[in-house]
């Protein structure tokens, strides 16, 4: 009996007050808009923390370095060489392809591989440099927060059109 009374009251209220239906729709739309704004307007600190690289082979920690954002390798799926072509089997991986011979004995684990990213707008960071220890090459870079759990890192040579994207995810 209570359910029938509720339905009748609901019909009567929308017949007597037609603006109530419009008000309900406006409230739902406002909630959706506020939620979307919160999700897509990131603060510079929103990207700080641990991110997993494509394929899950490594994890990077993004941190503040002055007013900019930097990043270092904090976890490797395979932290030691397993193939003699890459390095001495069983030894900790080092930055052996670095163009500077004095830096080739640095461990890859803990290596700073990102620096100089400056916030531009609410979801983008630009003017950074990313280093790939697998190749020993550095690239101009920029980042964009696609969602709270996805960060796109673009490394390029010269102009942004010539480059490649890497999607980082929260673990």
Question: How would you sum up this structure in a few lines?
Answer:
This protein is α+β, with helices and mostly antiparallel strands and 171 residues long. It has helices at residues 2-16, 19-40; strands spanning 49-52, 58-65, 68-76, 112-120, 124-132, 137-147, 150-156, 163-169.
Describe the structure.
With 171 residues, the protein is of the alpha+beta class. It has 2 domains: 2-40, no CATH class; 44-169, Lipocalin. It has 2 helices and 8 strands; from the N terminus they run H-H-E-E-E-E-E-E-E-E. The chain has an 8-stranded antiparallel sheet, with no helix packed on it. Mean pLDDT is 84; it is low at 6-10 and 25-41.
Number of domains: 2
Structural class: alpha+beta
Mean pLDDT rating: 84
Distance between the ends:
51 Å
Tell me the CATH architecture of the largest domain: Beta Barrel
**What general outline do the C-alpha atoms trace?**
globular
Helix content: 10-25%
Main beta-sheet strand count, sense and barrel state? 8 strands, antiparallel
Tell me the β content: 35-45%
């Amino acid at each position: 009996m209570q359910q029938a009374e509720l339905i009748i009251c609901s019909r009567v209220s929308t017949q007597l007050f037609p603006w109530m239906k419009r008000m309900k729709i406006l409230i739902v739309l406002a909630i959706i808009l506020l939620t979307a704004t919160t999700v897509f307007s990131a603060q510079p600190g929103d990207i700080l923390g641990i991110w997993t690289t494509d394929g899950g082979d490594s994890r990077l920690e993004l941190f503040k370095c002055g007013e900019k954002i930097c990043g270092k390798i904090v976890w490797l799926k395979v932290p030691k060489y397993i193939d003699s072509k890459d390095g001495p089997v069983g030894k900790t991986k080092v930055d052996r392809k670095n163009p500077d011979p004095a830096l080739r004995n640095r461990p890859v684990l803990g290596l700073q591989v990102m620096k100089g990213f400056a916030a531009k707008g609410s979801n983008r960071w630009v003017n950074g440099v990313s280093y790939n220890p697998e190749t020993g090459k550095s690239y101009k870079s920029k980042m964009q927060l696609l969602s709270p759990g996805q960060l796109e890192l673009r490394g390029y040579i010269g102009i942004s059109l010539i480059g490649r994207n890497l999607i980082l995810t929260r673990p």
